[in-house]
């Protein structure tokens, strides 16, 4: 399946099926891409307006970064599904003999690390996207500030969603030192960037409640 180019109705149909892919990881990547696209929208509604001439170059720079993040997140929708396939096959390997058990354990460990890598990448990109939304919210067009708020909420949801796909894989790893390292990295991102996203959201909400 080419998830990258799949239409929305087809994607959600496949997502709702019993097939394991696409799943929560790919869905998180897509939500993150939508979130950062809203940031680009704010930028496009700001650039060219005389009122925002003093921040135009900065907004253009943010827009360029946002478009790159959107593209990378969309690519990860497919990559997440691709990386899960070896793990799905590993689950089905026989384990009747000691040799089979050993072979399965080794392949499972490698597959778990591979499956974990994409949601970690999704998290990192969402953190970058949240950073960009601070600029979109504070310096973008006031007429589109609500879109910056929606965008940052989507990126936060994608960040949190991707983290669950990290934790479900690290939980099963036998290499606990590696698992603990990945878990700490994910927890650190969650702590810092969910708080940052909330700050941006509250700023936007405050703007909309002002009389």
Key terms:
single chain; 211 residues; mainly alpha; Four Helix Bundle (Hemerythrin (Met), subunit A); 0% strand
What is the secondary structure topology, with strand pairs?
Layout: H1 8-15, H2 24-46, H3 56-91, H4 98-139, H5 145-170, H6 176-209
The chain-level structural class is mainly alpha
CATH architecture: Up-down Bundle
| CATH fold call | Four Helix Bundle (Hemerythrin (Met), subunit A)
Number of spatially distinct domains: 1
Total strands: the figure is 0
CATH superfamily: Formiminotetrahydrofolate cyclodeaminase monomer, up-and-down helical bundle
Average pLDDT level: 93
What does this structure look like?
The structure is a single chain. The chain has 211 residues and is an all-alpha fold. The protein has a single domain (22-209), classed as Up-down Bundle (Four Helix Bundle (Hemerythrin (Met), subunit A)), CATH 1.20.120. Helix content is 80%, strand content 0%. It has six helices and no strands. It has helices spanning 8-15, 24-46, 56-91, 98-139, 145-170, 176-209. The mean pLDDT is 93.
Short overview:
By secondary structure, the chain is mostly helical. The chain is built from six helices and no strands.
